[in-house]
Amino acid sequence: MADILQLLVAGLATGGIYALVAIGFVLLWQTSQTINFAQGEFVMVPAFFVLAAMKLGGLSFPVAMLLGFLVTVVVLGLLFKRLLVDPIIRHGVLPLVISSIALAIFLKESVKEFYAADAQPFPAAWATTNLTVGGAVVAVQNLVIIAVAVVAVAALQYFLAGTRTGRRMQATAQNPGLARILGIPVERMILYTFLINAGLVALASFLVSPIYLAKFSNGETLGLVAFIAAIIGGFNQVRGAIVGGLLLGVIDNFVAAYLSAQYRGAIPLFLLIAVILFRPQGLVGRVEERTV
Amino acid sequence: MTRARTARVIAAAVVVAAIVAPFTLKPYGIYLLSLWAVMTIAAIGLNLTLGYAGQISLAQASFVGIGAYTAAILTTQGWPLAAAFVLAMALCFAIGWLLGYPALRVQHHYLAFVTLSFATLVFLVLRNEEWLTKGVYGISGIPRPTVLGWSTQGPVDFYFFCLGVLALVSAATWWIIRSPWGRAFMALRENPIRASSLGVDTRRYTLMAFAIGSVLGGISGVLYAPLVQFIEPNAFALGLSFNLLLMVIVGGSGYFYGPFLGAVVSVLLPEWLRFSEGLYLILYAVFVMILMAYFPSGLLGLAEGLIKRAGKPAPGPALPTRDGDAS
Amino acid sequence: MPAVLEVRELAKTFGGINAVNGVSFDVHDGEILGIIGPNGSGKSTLFNCILGQLTPSAGEVRLDGRAITGMRPSDLNLLGVGRTFQLLQVFPQLSVRENLILAGQEHLGSIWSRLAGRPDAGLTGAANRMIEFFRLAVVADERAGALSYGQQKLLDVAMAFMAGPRLVLLDEPAGGVNPTMLANLRERLRAINETAKATFVVIEHNMEFVMSLCTRVLVLDEGRIIAEGAPETIRDNHDVIEAYLGH
To answer: Cα distance from C163 to chain B (closest Cα, Å)?
Structure first.
């Protein structure tokens, strides 16, 4: 029982991070049909912004983290949209897929070439001790991750459903053409989703880096798992990304503990293939039947 | 047709260069040329699946891996390389056919992720099933074949062996894309619903496009193993799949000569320019992004555009055109 | 006259909405049947259910007495049923001639003979005749995507006839076509109907086009047939006027 609680907490923490990354991914797709194959690298990079600010700029950790967050929002939000997505999306989805793959290579190799090829320790903004709850050993940082993820998702949901801008963004996501006719500044709404995505990946980066250390290759698996979470949950809904992320996180931890550590990476892939074959709209997604 | 003639002249010049070049190069240069030939074969396969039939696959490296491991396991146990070719082609055809099934249900980005997941699965199997693949330790001492009494042990000999296989693969691919199959593949790419209303069995052609593309990946792998003589799972990870995809796109997806050019950019150019690997990849990535922004049809698309612009306006009556029809 | 196509109680619902609601009719050999009806009356859905593009919720479709309900579009085409779509559907990167050859190639030989045999055996000639017939000779080697809208429309229709089908369903062939081109199209369709003994079903908004081309007209409203008859009787039918002018 204690084991199960322990694994559940660890799983929800992992899943919370997957969910943050997957939500951003889904938002970009919904509003602008952007498939970001560099999403995993987007999570890898912000930690290096912080490390660079500390090492090269001599800033303290909290200041560096704030700066890292802002730089991420500008570079991976604003510049990503203006310099890469805007000129390419008019050619269709495939060229954008290709260039986001190229962007992933660019980010990975740049960090490796200009910062470091080996894993870098990343400071944690919280206690790294363990708590004992009813016989189960629970890492404080897992609780922090869960708390931060819950707050972030709740804030995002409030923003999308409870504010005027949020509702305009949803309208843009559902029907950009109609939104434009209704006088919603569609372009600005799309930009907001890019900024939100950048904020989410920065958050995920700061949560995950103290555990796995900051390394140029961190994005590879994280990005793939986040895509899979988005598809499993339902690609056309933020809710789906949350469900998919949490589910994968929990399954991942239980499989590693009870089945096979070697093939823990394979479980999401089987899930993905099963979902695509039998329920392509995702676990919580809606069917969109269209005539020809 | 001047364009066709230009292409033929250039192709002939490249063939001559490919035959003469190894005699002027050191062993490492010959190795790179062989690698170019081997990667071109895999890229030709992907170009068939993606460029002609319009089905995106991020799993081409897996078929190179399946081919390479088939060759490594069989030849280190004394089987001839010919047996590896037969088995690898059969395996890749069957697995490629199965990989095509998701493409019947989903397209574009979904298909990209399904194939990406499949590639990750193959990588996990290669790494974890040590009884078969020796896991992370890899398989070493892979022998080079003797073909009808001709030993391909030396670098030049093995290069010509690879070049010979490339020639066969190119001829077969040329035949396929000029046949009604090639036309059906293109119809699949441009408008599958219309194609099926004209009697095109889109299911069968989609699966066939995956299977044939995968077979070429397997052939490439069967050559790759004796070329490098030591293989391990990381060589066939996602990085290679991405690299092959970029070769096809950069060269010009849907152009017959695209993969040849793409493999030059990806395999030969970094060595000639003598950049460190990391720096080259960074510049390459920037180049790909710029290419996608301005010339999404790749280098050959760019060349075609330049030739058209330089040439005289086409004879015949001027016809009204509508923008966006081609998209 | 024997029925080529029999549609019985065909229905299709989308999330509780009855797009097609129990439609039955016969198409007789050699006739040109028009189907008219206001926007959203279920015409295109009806076509897509007959042609296997959508799976009907209920009902049956028979071709020459043989049940074809839910058959795949490609198999139906091989049985001799051609079609065009409401929106233009050509292959923009292929030349006009290649578009036509593609439209005929799957009807010849097996899939393996198509790989092994001489490419385009016999089809080039047929494609050239079709190009002549639809007056597309000047653009025969152009990419289909570079043609004018009207020319693409002609090519689209020509492709549906390339394999010599006995039944062709045309979804708004006159949509967006200028008057000169339209007269050309009507004349071509009549000629094929007479010489090749092909049977047509035509969905159309352009009343004048329907009335001058069709031998019989069905009127669809809210997924049901509300009237049927010769063009001149339909024109004066009270229910039809009602359906078009509003409720």
So the answer is: 8
